[in-house]
Amino acid sequence: MSEPDPTETLVPADATLEDLSEDQIVKAVAHHREATVGVGETLLAMDEVTLRFGGLTALDSVSFDIKRGEILGLIGPNGAGKTTCFNAMTGVYRPTSGHVVFEGRALRREARHQITRLGIARTFQNIRLFGEMTALENVVVGLDARHRTSVPGALARTPRHYKEERSAIDRAMVLLAFVGIADRAADKARNLPYGYQRRLEIARALATEPKLLCLDEPAAGFNPAEKDDLMALIRQIRDEGYTVLLIEHDMRLVMRVTDRIVVLDFGRKIADGLPEEIRADPAVIAAYLGGSDDAPA
Amino acid sequence: MTAADTTTKTQRAPFGQQIRDRWNGLPRQQQWLISIVFIVFLIFLPILNPAGITTEPGTDFPISLFNASRYALIAIGLNVVVGQAGLLDLGYVGFFAIGAYVTALFTSKDSSLHHLPYLACVPIGMAITMFFGLILGIPTLRLRGDYLAIVTLGFGEIVRLMADNVPALKGQVGFQNVGHPPGTRDNGLPIFLQSDGKPWYWLTIGVIIVVLILVGNLERSRVGRAWVAIRDDEDAAEIMGVPTFKFKLWAFVMGAAIGGLSGVIYAGQVGFVNNQKFDPVTSILFLAAVVLGGSGNKVGVILGAFLISYIPDRFTSIAEYKYLIFGCALVVLMIFRPQGLLGARQRLLTYGRQAYQRIAGRPEQLDTGAGALSGDSRSGAMGGGDL
């Protein structure tokens, strides 16, 4: 796959959002990816990943695959290790043993920002935007992950700097439009309404041009109508060729939006399968409704 | 950011809010025009020597203005580190001292080193301080917050103690006849005399303008955005692909370069460098200028530096109590206006002005206005906690 030019102009520089059709927005968001290439291949594999903090085993030799082009749900009761799983994938924690294999390559000592550049992006359970930046600037920080200008280039204002800056604004606006918050682009992130902040996190993560997008409870605190909108957005993201890993508590949402589900409980994988299989799995039901496996029959 | 900190922001008085809004609403050309008029006024200030503003007879007015401008330059440099990248540096005086000592060592007759022209010391002094910025930054920038502050405080002290104890640096005896920029007057005397503050003041104003333009270039680029992202939430920045260590190091190195440059200018004007001017209290005074004026606001830190330097010169009767007064002022400020006289304010996109106008039909939100922070925004809990 040839490296796409991130600074390629996507939309006419003087175009306003009203000029852009929905179709153009969608194309621009996913302009760089060949959506159908390798759908179904393994994108990321958790290979017997164990993570211990002192005496606490947060993940106990967890293995599962994420396939290109799918929406994989990661569920489990509170404290099951879902977010820890995210943190192991994005390099926040190093596995005590086992490997995270991304595109056939085990992640070892890559710094967290390098993992982002490899193509794993995430949002946070408790929103972590750059509060003092505008919504637009937040997304541009995400885009900067693919930019090359550093201090000398910025001081001297090189042509590359101008090119990156110009394309960054266009792409950031397109991404804000894609997640549906373009009307508040000029507001500081900390002043945005809660739902907008959640969507802005998704836009910022998409801006890093991930191959795998990890969403950590993106619907937390949403009402049912907002959840429906979010589900539509997640599906749309997948349809653009992104692979999505979704942590979510709301079972209704998970069952309806995901292609496949992995269930964790006490740091162990207890089930892995299609939503309807998971729904009927006795181990999952036990985990959610209170275990009775060692109780007398 | 904690909930408590959001609450303080809601309660603050809209200090100078109207002025700021009016300024932001002006067209670009008018802003430039007003700035140029103001700069011309600053240039003529030492000649006008207006009654009421002048610091004479206590202190020579041009010299006092030079000192204020020197503090302003230092504050701009420190603001890159503290205000933009959010790294608390308590040893900034160390870089200033290195700049001054480099100049003294290469230009003073008391030094055994090869003599160089003063102007050659400008790049050399900056390069050496940048090198020291790297030396200090590489091991320490893995630390955060208070730990970083302690190590940088130690660095400032190390530089001072070196000046005390390394024989080649001559301790309190110091270096006389430090060089100055070239040029002679009609009467044969050099333009840059120690007794005449005016040329030095104008030189520093010129340097400040150039530095402001360059720092502005950094701010409205990937670099400036990385710095603000690190300041807001370092972990999130790293996970969003910001090479945080690299950019923190750059912030340190750029800050060091500006500190070194101001040291070079200072050594030239005073003409004498010894170990007496580089104590930790001076570091704290620099930091006070940044915090007082408004960390993260270039105009603010210049204002803060001016106040810190000018007030003791103007009101000589209270000069003895300056630390007491600045200390109390800071305490009061931290209670009522923790963001400083002018709050942080940044433009982070090269084409931001046009873009926001096109997108929103208005300029971007530059400061967290008290009115804008309504109920709904507080429900979004920002930052803090685990990932």
Can you write the helix and strand succession of chain A as a string? HEEEHEEHEHHHHEHEHEEHH
Mean pLDDT across the residues of chain B is: 85
Structural class assignment of chain B:
mainly alpha
Per DSSP E runs of 2 or more residues, the count of β-strands of chain A stands at 10
Report the β-strand fraction of chain A as a percent range.
Answer: 15-25%
Task: Please provide a brief summary of the model.
Chain A has 11 helices and 10 strands.
Supply the key terms.
heterodimer; A: 297 residues; alpha/beta; six-stranded mixed sheet; four-stranded antiparallel sheet; 11 helices; 21% strand; globular; B: 387 residues; mainly alpha
Describe this structure in words.
The complex is a heterodimer of chains A (297) and B (387). Chain A has 297 residues and is an alpha/beta fold. Chain A contains eleven helices and ten strands. Chain A has helices at residues 22-29, 82-89, 112-118, 135-144, 151-156, 159-179, 194-207, 224-239, 251-257, 275-280, 282-289, and strands at 42-53, 56-67, 71-75, 97-102, 105-106, 120-122, 212-216, 243-247, 260-265, 268-273. In chain A, helix 1 (22-29) packs across helix 6 (159-179), helix 4 (135-144) packs across helix 6 (159-179) and helix 4 (135-144) runs parallel beside helix 7 (194-207). The radius of gyration of chain A is 20 Å and the shape is globular. Chain B has helices at residues 3-11, 17-25, 28-48, 61-84, 92-107, 118-140, 145-165, 197-219, 222-232, 234-239, 244-270, 280-293, 298-314, 322-336, 352-360, 375-379. The longest helix of chain B is centred in the middle third of the chain and has 27 residues, at 244-270. The radius of gyration of chain B is 22 Å and the shape is globular. Helices cover 65% and strands 0% of the residues of chain B. The interface between A and B is large, with 67 and 61 residues.
